[in-house]
Amino acid sequence: MALAAETLQPSERKIISVGDLTRRIKKSIEDTVRYVWVSGELSNYKGPGPSGHLYFTLKDAESQIPCCMWKGMANRLRFDPENGMEVIAFGKVDVYVPYGKYQLIVEDMEPRGVGSLQLKFEQLKEKLQKEGLFDQERKRPIPFLPRKLAIVTSPTGAAVADMVRTLRTRCPALHVIVYPVKVQGDGAAQEIAAAIGHLNLSMPEIDVMIVGRGGGSIEDLWAFNEEAVARAIHASRIPVISAVGHETDTTIADFVADLRALTPTDGAVKAVPKLDDLHLALGDYDAKLRRALRTRAELFRSQLDGFREGRAMGRVEEMPDQLRQQLDDFEDRLHVAVAQAPQHLKERLDAYRQALSVDLPRLAKNARQRVDHLTSILRSDAQRRLETAQASLRQAAASLEALSPVAILGRGYSITRLESTEEILKEAAQAKPGDRIVTRLGSGQIVSRVEKD
């Protein structure tokens, strides 16, 4: 049986280069396969290189395919790839012409069988736990009766309203500061982390901080699962209460915070005691102390009476009466002190409320002055940037003008074309006798006829 090559005449052979063949294969694959979903096991993954691109291999029991994921797509991954991980990748099949090999250009990838967000959550949780960010020993106690409290949350929505209302109801004298931030979407985690850091630096007098938001999906709550927020809470000097979502929602912030609240409202409840409850408790303590004093006094009287009745010498006879008199005097002074204790506490609370009412206008004035100062800085910076941009634009315009063909013609040069084809004449041989030519000058043009070679 003759080979196909032996049946062709030399004139019928069509010889192509290796590059041409590879490009034909590339075009054929791109036209027929294009975008695909591929499942397989990650291997040969070494992490992002200096360029930020990812290179790895997807394989199964039958075959393997090299893969590439450009930096922009890699930055959008919601988990950290690891060798041996089963994944599903989406991308387009491509042929790398210099090596003549086909590869998969991956645009998206997710773990197989586990959601990417859940996997990223577990990976970060394990990492921070190993670093000790969840250790109970480092958690700070929440102050029993704070004077100033900050809430880091969205300025709109039911969560912030519920927290402020609960705090005002439980402790009207409490000074509450709401620090507005984004709580979901791009940049939310960075805003929350920056707010925690700023409060620590600019308002060290704050006693406790609530960081949280209302309920939502795992995507909505994801800002509180970001590493930046976890490390900001860990570094905070101010004790932090995490109050994110509903009772069933758990975030990384909950593990790092000094105290976890089930909901934003529960966070407000755990932050401050209720003044009415304090008054009731104080009354209960007062009653218990009075009963204890009476019992103690009766015991001493009984002991003294027994001692007097069993005296052995006449000079001891006066001792019980003296001791009884001292005991009665001590009991009277204790009764007076106990009776005055609630009044002293009330006076302290009144003084505390008065101090807060004086501080609020001053704080508001300082805040307005700071806003005005920042506004002035922003305006100056914007004006400076605008002037710089205008100068750059003028310089670019001057450069373009210098390179413009029209400007060149204005310096005495000209361009000549054949009138019939508008071909630019670079050599005299391009024009034949009888041809009409058009010469463009810096201003206007001249039409001529070629008389001879």
What does this structure look like?
The protein has 453 residues and is α/β, with parallel strands linked by helices. The chain folds into 4 domains: 14-114, Nucleic acid-binding proteins (OB fold (Dihydrolipoamide Acetyltransferase, E2P), Beta Barrel); 120-271, Rossmann fold (3-Layer(aba) Sandwich), CATH 3.40.50.261; 275-387, no CATH class; 410-449, no CATH class. The protein is 47% helix and 18% strand. It is built from 11 helices and 13 strands. The strands form 3 sheets. Strands 1-2-3-5-4 form a 5-stranded mixed barrel. A 5-stranded parallel beta sheet has the order 7-6-8-9-10, with helices on both faces. Helix 4 packs parallel to helix 8, helix 5 runs parallel beside helix 6 (227-235) and helix 9 (275-309) runs antiparallel to helix 10. The longest helix is centred in the last third of the chain and has 86 residues, at 318-403.
**What is the CATH superfamily label of the largest domain?**
Succinyl-CoA synthetase domains
Q: What is the level 1 CATH name of the largest domain?
A: Alpha Beta
**Which quaternary structure do these chains form?**
single chain
Mean pLDDT rating: 82
Order of helices and strands: HEEEHEEHEHEHEHEHEHHHHEEE
Rg, alpha carbons: 42 Å
In the predicted model, the low-confidence regions spanning at least 5 consecutive residues are 311-316
- Residues in helices, as a percent range: 40-55%
Net shape:
elongated
